[in-house]
Specification:
homodimer, 215 residues, alpha+beta, four-stranded antiparallel β-sheet, 34% helix, 24% strand, DNA-binding
Chain lengths: 215, 215
DNA sequence: CGATATATTGAACCGTCTCAAACTTCGTGG
DNA sequence: CCACGAAGTTTGAGACGGTTCAATATATCG
């Protein structure tokens, strides 16, 4: 859903676009959160530095994704947004959006849907991170991100980027992909990974599951 | 924020409360998402079964927390909600809430705030999970959850629950807590953990940080 | 008071991280 | 057009730490 559609003309006039070059910063953690962004083209990386200097990729934003939703509820951004490629974003002034919210239920619905999607995406992410085995984590990621044919995953960035997204070192990811290729689970080509037929069955190795839950 | 306050009387009449006994299920993953809940008393555990049969605790809900926010954006719940203790919850019919949303900007604000908090909490959670070292993860959890005095953390459930929340085996957590106690970082009493003075400095061992980011 | 779950510690295994080295790719400038 | 440097890619070897399996103690609840 394009937020802009829900905004009346006077506010729409306040919406501006901005272009970024690769490596350029859109906003930084702790910066005053004044705007909400939507990616029009290109890719941005949302990163956070943890207390130990480790770089943590929150997500790779692609066209249609919104950035800085937190700004609606918080005074400060809580991550850095950095362009990976050349990129253009649409900027929505937070104050105007909040004001319009009071009068425009459609906008409220749009924003609620946006946050709802964000919540679900974070849940998925958390689910991935909880898989402590590199291979299974990669498998799950792949089946979760397979395209419409269910067999092709196109990589948003470099393999190294994917590694930080998955919470693995790049070495571990390279090794895992190599092993999966050797075992015929996947085939790799530039920027893409082909899942072999019957990939799903790899996802559930000889395991009986569903621990009983008392109800 | 109590959602009920934002609802007009006719709808408020549709709000019911329900009591649960320990171990009882409020809703299950994949069930039709018809309601939104708010915890009044007691504790519930939100869990999900991953593809490998492992139990994953999404969160422990305590009074004031909302459950099934996803229901507003999705047709199905995506986790199980199970009472840990005896508990009472308030049930808001999803359809009524969505309808009221069209007319009531205050309710919209409340829901947006609720989802925003959820997003932030999930981000924090993700941040924790990305710390691959048990001790540092526990340290970070503790400093993040210290009470108003900044020195006391009260445990919502059992230590075992905390372990699954942190994505550790309970053995690993017990050992870590034991080691931290031995080193004087913390002191333990029933249901509580006392952080020793200067706990923060433990959080940043001899490390230089902030990897340079091209901007 | 017995049964069930939590709490606690031990020992061994396995997989990921870390450090290291080499190769490839790509863009920039001479 | 090629030389060069920077960043991504790939593989190796070893250490560390969490999981796993195991055993025992303690607590809680009917």
């Amino acid at each position: 859903m394009i937020l802009e559609r829900c905004l009346p003309a006077p506010i729409r006039a306040l919406v501006t676009t901005r272009t970024l070059r690769p490596g350029q910063t859109l906003f930084k953690a702790r910066g005053r959160a004044a705007d909400l962004y939507e990616v029009i083209s290109g890719r941005l990386r949302l990163v956070r530095h943890d207390s130990f200097g480790r770089l943590e990729t929150l997500s790779i934003a692609t066209p249609g994704d919104k950035l800085g939703q937190a700004s609606l509820c918080s005074e400060h951004y809580n991550c850095d947004a950095i362009a990976i490629t050349s990129a253009t974003v649409r900027r929505y002034p937070k104050a105007a959006v909040l004001a319009e919210l009071e009068r425009n239920p459609k906008l409220a619905r749009a924003i609620i849907a946006m946050l709802g999607r964000e919540v679900m995406s974070l849940r998925t992410r958390l689910h991935l991170q909880n898989i402590h085995n590199a291979r299974d984590r990669v498998r799950t990621y792949l089946s979760l991100n397979a395209g419409t044919d269910g067999r092709t995953v196109s990589l948003a960035g470099t393999v190294k980027d994917l590694a930080t997204y998955l919470g693995l070192t790049h070495e571990a990811l390279y090794r895992t992909l190599a092993a999966m290729t050797a075992d015929g689970e996947i085939k790799r080509s530039v920027g893409k990974i082909q899942l072999s037929t019957g990939f799903d069955k790899w996802c559930h190795p000889p395991t009986e599951m569903q621990a009983p839950v008392n109800s």
